[in-house]
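Q: I'm writing a short methods note and want an example of a predicted protein-small molecule complex. Could you take the sequence and the SMILES for zinc ion and return the bound structure as tokens? Please keep the output block clean; save any remarks for afterwards.
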Amino acid sequence: MADAKRIQRDLEALRDFSAPGGEGTTRLSYTPAFRKAADYVLEQMRACALEAREDGVGNLYGLRRGLDPAAPKILSGSHLDTVRCSGYFDGQAGIVCALEVARMLEENGVRLRRGFEAVATVMEEGARFKNLGGSKLAMGVWGEAELDGMQDDDGITLREALRAYGLSGNLACVCRRDEPVRAFLEVHMEQGSRLEREGIDLGVVEKIFGCRWFTLTVKGVTAHPSTPMDQRRDAALASVSLISHMARITAEQYAGRATLTVGRMSLYPGEINAIPSRAVFSMDFRSGQESCFEELDGILERECRRTEQEYGVQAQCELYTYTPPTPCAREIVTALEAAAEKSGSSALRMDSGAGHDAMIFALGWPVGMLFLPSRRGLTHCKEEWTDYENVARGADALYKAVLALDRE
Ligand SMILES: [Zn+2]
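A: Understood, no commentary inside the block.
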């Protein structure tokens, strides 16, 4: 059985590798806090007899060799980075479960036919560079162009960040897409409260929702606040109107099928006593259906034109990233469900509204995900919580799934 005490120790250790100041845990990729957390994970990998390594971009791998070197491996893990002021379960719980499985294999003296590899990815959250970066580099979706072309908010390119962090940025051994892999299994907390509400131990993910991010720029004309209301070209008012129209349409016409979030917004020149000449904001659409994204693209375009006419502004919409909806491999879903049952946990099939590294690994390998209950559905905040016993249940189910997939 998985040991909830060890799981707690690992999670609390990771919690404390955080940038100073601010609430909760803040561990952006390639920062000193991330370095300390990565060293801790590498150390724990070695402690449970895994061959630990860091690739050229900061993804961590710990391999337990199988008896048959030709047999496709089983990989399991999640991301080590966090958003700002986060909790310490999102991502981290999946890494800790993979470590716990490695410990259980070692303690029980299990010799697997397949190799088992614990994984901790970098850059999943998009809090510094674009999201899902570690897995995108590991699957060859990103390459040299992204290392030089991508910048954080301080203008530091990804390549510069890698160098400052002490990594080569050499992509030669980073891409693993062509490796034979039986399954990538990711344990992650649910980003919702369904498991908690229904009193279920574990979620077995059938499909991961796609995510489509836009950057919108609305240009008006700055003027003194005494300008009569009907003579303005106010970038802020125009943006608010565009956002509220899009939110209403999404809520009314796409209820249960798509969501819209505006999480970032900046106004320029940003003075109390000046009508803004420019507004820049994000739009994050999520859906399980590609057709919804296509329709919403058309609606967004139409609403941009309407806003331009109504407010005398220019509205530009630029696609920032797109990850399409991804189904988990059907036989892995079945295996995880059976493993949950075998380890004495109740399980529920569900979709993931949030994006995960598993959807990128799915480009090359069969993937599956196990969800852990999240207290009140809160994540990406310091209140984020999953009981340690629940994380241990996830590790137990993962262990059974690894054994089952090894026997195939
Ligand atoms: Zn996550």
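A: Remarks, as requested: The domain at 4-208+326-407 is CATH 3.40.630.10 (Aminopeptidase). The CA atoms of residues 263 and 282 lie 6 Å apart.
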